[in-house]
Amino acid sequence: MTEPEQANHAHAFLLPDQLDALIERLREQGYRTVGPRVVDGAIVYRDVERADELPHGYIDTQDGGRYRLVRDEDAGAFDHVVGPDSLKRFVFPSCDTVLRADLQDGSWTMTPAGLPDEPVAVIGVRGCDLQALAVTDRVFLEGPYVDPLYEARRRNMFLVAVNCRRAAATCFCHSMNTGPAAGGGFDLALSELADGFVVESGSAAGDELIATAGWPAPDTARLEQARAQTAQLEAEMHARDGVVRDDGAMSRQRSLDTEGIHDLLLGRLSHARWEDIGDRCLACSNCTMVCPTCFCSSVEEVSDLAGEHVTRERSWASCFTAEHSYMNSGTVRKSIASRYRQWLTHKLASWHDQFGMSGCTGCGRCITWCPVGIDLTEEVAAIRD
Ligand code: SF4
Ligand code: SF4
User: Fold this and answer.
1) Exposed (0-12), middle (13-18) or buried (19+): which is 91, by Cβ within 10 Å?
2) pLDDT, tens digit, 9 for 90 and up, residues 330-354
């Protein structure tokens, strides 16, 4: 697990073919290595053993309800942006066994699930997703109750971040101050250049890996180029807010005006726009499944046919379902409009009251993977107007 920021961490420079050496080093240290791979037309996290398994030569075009991979011979290993997967699946999987109960000689024995102990190194993590991990850390580790399964997985992670040099039209990390540079919380951060990778360490574990690998330090020009290309992307994202552009699909760069957003949303709970969204929303819960910070779950007990062995399973749940707000008097949030309002006001307003930070990192996944293209940046703008 990444330690708090320290000054003067190590830097290194890797030639393109030395990405394999990075993966090998991590595997030698006992990590399962996962990274972005092309699977079924999307870029998702899967096991990676060699650098040529990374999505070299692919970019993604994204828009409301739309995701396409496009071949681009100039694209490097990390010129795609975020896909439907996030770090959530590694710290809070979609289904987890939390307890087993076994009937023996007429009495039940309860056995809590063993703590996961597989070290996992995730390669290709973006700034918005590092922030999402900070959000879920706040929920699972820093409140009055610590989740032991989350804690065990989180402690065993090594994070190799990437500073983005390209953004999707759905990205609004620049509005949320979470990207496009990896702001912190990583062990190593890569900046992909035309002739290799500038590597920056962000932890003692990252320092140690660089020191033992013996990679050379980058020269000043490459360090400067790495910083400049992310800064340039951020400036471009600000500059093209709302401007139609063509990157294979006509679209516009999203942004979110967060000024006074807490009071704005909570002060307009009767705005007509909520009903308008309710007419379009399918309550399919896709947005909550792909969101890297949505953390609701439900627990059910699953028995074998003989009724002698029972497992207690925790699985992802969504505030878009009717049963999520079911109480003894019935479902509290009966309309889809009220469920969307609950989700959005929690993300952007009451999350601040509950956890002292925003629940949204600007990753844009909920826009891309919404089948009807509902776009929270557009909805907030409409409510603001
Ligand atoms: S609410 Fe949407 S944009 Fe914000 S973190 Fe979740 S998926 Fe990303
Ligand atoms: S906002 Fe979109 S993704 Fe979310 S529940 Fe409604 S239809 Fe599904």
Assistant:
1) buried
2) 999 999 999 999 999 999 999 999 9
How far apart CA 344 and CA 323 sit, in angstroms, is 18
| The three-state (H, E, C) secondary structure of 176-199, written as one string | HCCCCCCCCCCCEEEEEECCEEEE
Domain termination residue (choose one: 252, 273, 291): 252
| Residue owning the nearest CA to atom 7 of ligand 1 | 291
The first and second tokens of residue 118, run together, are 């597989």
Tell me: do 215 and 287 sit in the same domain.
no
What's the pLDDT score for residue 252?
78
- Report the mean per-residue pLDDT for the chain: 94
Instruction: Report which bound ligand comes closest to the CA of 369.
Output: 2
Is 174's C-beta closer than 6 angstroms to any atom of ligand 1? no
Q: Which two tokens mark 270? A: 């009767």
How close is the Cα of 150 to the center of ligand 2, in Å? 27
Q: Is the CB of residue 291 less than 8 Å from the CB of residue 366?
A: yes
End residue of a domain, out of 224, 252, 280:
252
Q: Which residues contact ligand 2 via a Cβ below 6 A?
A: 281-287, 320, 370-372, 374
Shortest-distance Cα residue to atom 2 of ligand 1: 366
Q: Which ligand is nearest to the CA of 287?
A: 2
Instruction: Please state whether beta strands 188-193 and 157-162 pair in parallel, antiparallel, or not at all (unpaired).
Output: parallel
